[in-house]
Write a structure and sequence with these properties.
The protein is built from ten helices and 19 strands. With 374 residues, the chain is α/β, with parallel strands linked by helices. Strand 3 and strand 4 form a beta hairpin. The two termini are 44 Å apart.
């Protein structure tokens, strides 16, 4: 490379340093998001590695980098190859099978707020954005995901190593208690049995490589939630509520539970908000309004999305085809937007998370102790 080329490449790097990752608030060069940069006869090309394929500002970030480089004297053209590399929650090392990068819990304080619907559509929306996704139906008492994902009449296989092979639907790997029990049989289990089931679903299922494992929790603040948070680090929790005050009083309990268990709150989703009349087009707030805003302000967390009250959501769930797969649907786009916001929040939390430090007391020759940090 001649001196002019070297100077041009240096100037290109300096230009890219002016571009910031909007969520992490650092320049994209120091974050190592620019790779394989080359300059040849004034033509600049490089890979732009995003922290998630579901980045909500992908187009804006690409345009900013393009504009910054084009302003460099001597640049005649710019080619950007957009890609992604979802970072792994460092706390998951040596805890779960190595392929799982991030665990997202979806919870609520009470039943009937659409938590399972949000979980299914969130998982599928992330997959539609290009991520590898698994969905764990941890609602042991009322597993609905098999029906909602259209695989209610199927059962997972067990491999030669006695590991469970999850079913796959719409590109999402799925495991649920609903696959293992008769649909009409009640689950009458005490805490230890619930804990064993949660651990088995996490460690004895062949999840493979996953950018995100979305976990649909049962309603409330019971044994399953406690077992999950004790068994594996959760990158963050998504709270689901409806607008009415009775739902808000319960979702506050769920938020307090996650805080006590040191699980970051990614944000809140308001489900079944405004209803658009299909006849007159007028929107109405059937279940009051402002619920998510109250939770957002109380816990200083963002509103990740507002999902409208849409009969198509119920019909889609019962037919086994989540509404996010529908084209030209406002509700489907609301779920796609929700997924992008969740992915962005996960990237921020992951960037700030440090590996778990386990202190081990090791005896020395003189019988003193010292701490070894792992």
């Amino acid at each position: 490379m001649n001196s002019e080329q070297e100077i041009l490449e240096k100037n290109v790097w300096e230009a890219l340093k002016t571009c910031q990752e909007p969520e992490l608030r650092k320049d994209i060069v120091s974050l190592k998001m620019i790779q394989n940069l080359s300059v040849k006869e004034g033509v600049v090309s490089f890979d732009y590695i995003l922290t998630t394929p579901a980045c909500p500002l992908k187009m804006e970030m690409e345009a900013e980098a393009m504009s910054a480089v084009r302003k460099v004297p001597g640049v005649v053209d710019v080619h950007i190859r957009m890609s992604h590399d979802v970072k792994k929650d460092p706390r998951l090392e040596n805890v779960l099978p190595p392929g799982i990068k991030n665990i997202i819990a979806v919870g609520s304080g009470k039943g009937g707020v659409g938590k399972s619907t949000v979980s299914a559509n969130l998982a599928l929306a992330l997959a539609l954005e290009g991520a590898s996704v698994g969905l764990l139906d941890a609602d042991i008492y009322g597993p609905n995901q098999p029906q909602m994902m259209g695989v209610g009449n199927q059962s997972p296989e067990v491999g030669p190593d006695k590991k469970i092979i999850p079913l796959e639907s719409f590109g999402v790997k799925l495991m649920s208690m609903g696959f293992l029990m008769d649909a009409d049989a009640p689950v009458i289990w005490r805490g230890p049995m619930l804990h064993s089931a949660v651990v088995q679903f996490l460690k004895d299922v062949v999840w493979g490589d996953l950018d995100y494992l979305v976990i649909d929790l049962p309603p409330g603040t019971g044994d399953v939630q406690l077992s999950l948070c004790q068994s594996a680090p959760i990158v963050g929790a998504v709270l689901v509520t409806t607008p009415q005050s009775i739902a808000l009083s319960d979702v506050r309990k769920a938020a307090a539970m996650f805080e006590k268990l040191k699980v970051p709150l990614l944000g809140v989703v308001e489900n079944m908000g405004s209803f658009a009349c299909p006849h007159c087009g007028k929107s109405s707030h059937i279940f009051s309004e402002g619920g998510a805003r109250f939770v957002s302000e109380k816990y200083q967390i963002p509103i990740l999305g507002n999902i409208p009250l849409d009969p198509a959501v119920c019909q889609a769930g019962e037919s086994g085809r989540p509404v996010v797969t529908f084209e030209k649907s406002a509700t489907a786009e609301a779920f796609r937007s929700l997924a992008r916001q969740v992915a962005a929040r996960v990237s921020v939390v992951s960037a700030k998370t440090k590996p778990i430090e386990i202190k081990i007391k090791a005896a020395t020759a003189d019988d003193k102790t010292k701490e070894a940090m792992i």
